[in-house]
Structure formats: C-alpha cells, structure tokens
Amino acid sequence: xxxxxxxxxxxxxxxxxxxxxxxxxxxxxxxxWFMRQAGRxxxxxxxxxxxxxxxxxxxxxxxxxxxTMQPVRRxxxxxxxxxxxxxxxxxxxxxxxxxxxxVGPVVANxxxxxxxxxxxxxxxxxxxxxxxQAVRLLTEELGSTPLIGFAGAPFTLASYLVEGGPxxxxxxTKALMHADPKTWHLxxxxxxxxxxxxxxxxxxxxxxxIQLFDSWAGALSLAEYREFVLPxxxxxxxxxxxxxxxxxHFGVGTGELLGAMxxxxxxxxxxxxxxxxxxxxxxxxxxxxxxxxxxxxxLFAGWPAIEKQVRRIAAEADAALAAGAxxxxxxxxxxxxxxxxxxxxxxxxxxxxxx
Length: 355
Description:
Shape: globular
Order of helices and strands: HHHHEHEEHHEHHHEHEHEHEHEH
Number of strands: 9
C-alpha cells in the first residue's frame, strides 16, 4: 500500500485559465488544450523522433521536454501535457513490454493467474527519474503555462496486462473479472499502487494538474464499473488529493459511466464527443468541471464545418455551466489524429479564445 504523500510547494501560476476553470474560478478566456497535442500531427515531432523508439523517447528528459513544448509554442494552448505513455510506469517497474508501431503496447508475459499478479514488480520513484527530470525541465521553461501530468487508470492498464496488448472485446479481462474477482481486485490494487507512485513522482517534481486516462472503461457496463473498477480509481484520486492540484478523469465511450466516474474523486470529468456537454453535466452532477469534446475527425471537415462545431460545443458548455458544472476546458473528445493539419489546431485555439 502507498502512504499519503507530502508535496513540496510548486510554482504559483496565479489565474492560469486552465487551473481556474478546473477549480471553479473565473477565467480570463476559455482554456483549451488537446489530448495528443504533442505527437505525429506535428512535423517537428516526426523530425525529432526519427529513428528513436517510443519508449526510448519517454525516458530521455531533454527529448520529453522538447516534444512537450512543441504544441505550446505552435498552438498557444493553455496547458502542456507531459509527453509520455500510460505503460511507462509498467516498463519502468520491470514488466517486459514494448510499444509496437501500428499495434500499441504488447506485453511479453500476460497476467492470467494469481501467481502472475503476485509476481508483478512494484514501481519505486527512482525508476522514473528520467520522467521527473523532464518535469523539472518543463516547469522552468513553460513560464505561466500549466503542465499536466498523467497516468493510466488501473482498469485500462490491467486490460493491457491481461490481454497481452490492445483488445477489441476485452474477453480475457472480463473473464478474469467475473470468474475470479479476488484475483481481479488484487491485480487492480497492485496496478493502483504503481499508478499512484507514478503520479506522486510527477507531483513531487512539480506538475500543476494530473489526468487519469481510463481509455478502455467504455467497454464496461455501469454495474461492472461500479463493482470492479470504481474503488480502485477512487483510491488513486484520494492518494493524490493532498497535492491540491486539479485532477481530471477521462475515458472513451463512457457516456453511461459519467455519473460513476464523477464519483471517483476528480475535479474535472472529461467527456468524449458522443455526449453533449450539457447532457454530461446532468449525468456527472453539480460541482464538477467538464473537459471536451470536439470529435477529432471533424478537424478534417474544412474550416466552416469546424467553426460551426466549435461554436456548438462552446454553447453546450455554457448550458452545462448553467446546469451546475463549475467550469469548462475545451478539448477534443479523444486524441489528435496523426494526419490532422496542425494549422487547423492553431485556428481552433484562436477561435476558442475568442468565444
């Protein structure tokens, strides 16, 4: 088990719009950032990553700093998000995995039994020293722009470990969950320890907010989520509460889970493009900020269509605020697609700032 951490003081960012929106304070303009804003959509990213593997890149502090800064310089977004991957803490702990181009994370020895769970290595902060060094470099370079740290949620990481890689149906994951709940909860508790340790390391290094990605939670029913997932996500958020930074919770296809996800303890609930923000506000309940939720595919539709959709989402966000949401952070409903024209993202930021 992890213990509650004491966190050092961090840089004071005053009224940074993203932090204000996340905590229910007035904003000078509507904040915007994009999931996967640092990545293959940027030619400067493709150039600097040429010949360097994904995981290798994630453990190079200077490279992480440069890649994280690229979209901030180009798009003038209201936050940087640490360039990393949700499997980085698993790799750092000693789990044999790799990120295979065109496939995703692939685990050499999938977890299928209680013995496999017991044998999983635990993460210690020193093993992610390269990541924390990158955070320190970034907090020096970012000026008044907040830095978002992140981690994968226990369920999504468990799915990779059990399936051995990405899965369309999560059949092995759900089979373990239902057939052997005791082993399942032991697995998620173990992964939660690693997630907490990874987030705490980033917070000690100085990140200004954190986001927990539960990318595959949308594969679950509400009953499954409440029984098998929610307690572990709650523990992750509880263990970083004392850092007093905004906590964001995001999943894909989670429209039916938004109420439960709102209960997990985050300050901000991310919403994908399938659910209007005002509907999401009613599902999440009052007292939470919302993040989202432009469909990433709309960025290929040409500016008139993009502008129409951005304005629609801003109007739905305003309706969400009227319905009890405490703030809105504009984002996509999932990550930037690799073939997105970067100039379109820059134009979206300018438009959002004007609304």
